[in-house]
Amino acid sequence: MSADQYGPRLTVQQAQDQMSKARHRGYRPAVRKKGVATRNLERVFSTIVTVDGPSSRDIATLLDLSPGTVSALVRELEERQLVRLSSGRASSQGRKPKPVVVDHRTRHTFGFEISAEKVVAVVMNLAGEAVLREVHDFGDDAWTGGKKYAGWVDEDVVVDTIRSMFTALKHQLLERIRDQHPDALDQGLDPVVGIGVSLGGHINRHTGEVRFAPDLRWSTPANRMDGWGPSVQLRQRIRDVTGVDKARIVVDNDANGRAAAYELYGGGAYFDDAPSTVVLVTEVGVGAAHFIDHEIYRGATGKSLELGNIQVKPDGLQCRCGSKGCLEAMSTRDAILGALGSAKVHSLEEARKLAADGHSQAVRAFTQAGTYLGVGLSILVNLFDTSRIVLTGPAITAVAGSAPVVFDQHFDRAMRETLQSKGYSEGIDPDSVEVIEETGEWNGARGAACLVVHDMITGHLDL
Q1: Percentages helix, strand, coil for the chain, rounded to the nearest 5?
Q2: Quick one: where's region Disordered (predicted)?
Q3: Which of 288, 298, 344, 377 could pair covalently with 305 via S-S, beta carbons 3.0-4.6 A apart?
C-alpha cells in the first residue's frame, strides 16, 4: 500500500471487523480524563475522517452511542464546517441515509517539513488530500559557515522561508476557494485550521522548542557540539511571522507526523485499540512513534522512542548525535556503504545492484545492517508489547513482483528474522510487521499537516 493514497478509507464493515479483533485480543483502552461530551465529539469526528462515508446510524453503531446523540454531534461539527452531509445512498432496508464526510471544501491544514536541504510545504484538506504544494531549496548561504555542515542552518532563514511560503500558499488557497466555492468565505470562518511543522530530532511538543536537530545542527547548551547553533523556539517564531495562534501550531518530530498520517488516512488503524508503532526509516536515520489509545506517546519532553539513538554496538560507527554505535549509525546508508569500502560503491543504488547480482560483500553489508535494525525493533517490541509495526519512509524500496522492502530484500529478510529470534516470549506476529512505500516527497509535509488533524481528534486542539 502506498502512503500517498487518500482512499478508499475503511468501510463500515471493515471498521466493525477491526473492533471485533481488538476485543478478541482482550485489549481495553485507558479511560481518558476528559468530559464525555468532548470525548464523544472527538470520537464522531475521527470516525468520519477514518471511515468511508458512514451515515449517522453507522457511526452510532460503531461507537455504541444513541442515534440522537450522534445526530446532535454531527450537527455541531457541521456548524463548525468540519463535516457535511453528502448525497444519499440506498441501504439494504431501502432507506437512503446521507453519508457524513469531512468538509474538504474550505477547512485546510498547512504542513511544513524542514530538512538540511529544503523546506517542503503542503496545504491539505480534511480529507487528507494535498491540494497545494511548494518546495524551497536551501543553498549554502542558509548555513552560518557558508557551506553545508559548516556551522548550522540559520534559524532566521528557516523562519523567513516558512513565512514567505505560508503567505504565498494562503493567497493561493483563498483564490482557490473563491473560485470553486464562491460563497464559502462569506461566514468569516478562517480556512486555516492550523499549521503543522515536522523535522528530525528532539522537539518539546508542549512548548514548540526544537531542542536537538542533528540535520540542522541546533542544540541546547547542555549537549551542543562545536559548530552547532542554539535551540530554537520554533512555534513562537512561526506564530510571530504567520499570525496563526500558537494553540493551532504543532511542532513535532517527523516520525510522529508520518505516524499521524498513517493512523488517520493510511491504514485504518484507528479502530484497533491495541498499541502500535510506526517506524520511519530514511537513508541516514531511524525514528519511531508509538500509539497508546490512539494518542502518540511523546514522553516528558517529547523525545520518547528515539529508536535510532539506542546503542546497539558500544564500539560501533560514529552517529550524527555524537555517540557511537547508535542503531541508525549501524543500520542505514553509511553503514551499508562503509562495509563496501573496498568495492568502491558510492550510492545505495549501486549497492543494491551488486547485492541483487549476488555480490557476497554487498549481500553481507545489507544483511548485517538489517540484523541491527531487527535488534532495535525487538527491543521496541519487548519494551512496549506493541501489536503492530509499520515501517515507512524514503528507505522503503519497491521490488518488482514482490511487496516493498526496507533497503533491499537481504536487509528486509535479516531484519524480520532477527526481530522474531530476539523477541521475548511470543514476540510479534510476523503478519503484523508492515512495510509501506512512500511515492513522493510530499509525505513528510503531509504528515506535518496531519499532526494538526490528529491533535483535533485527540483533544489537544480545539475542534
Answers
A1: 40, 20, 35
A2: 1-26
A3: 288
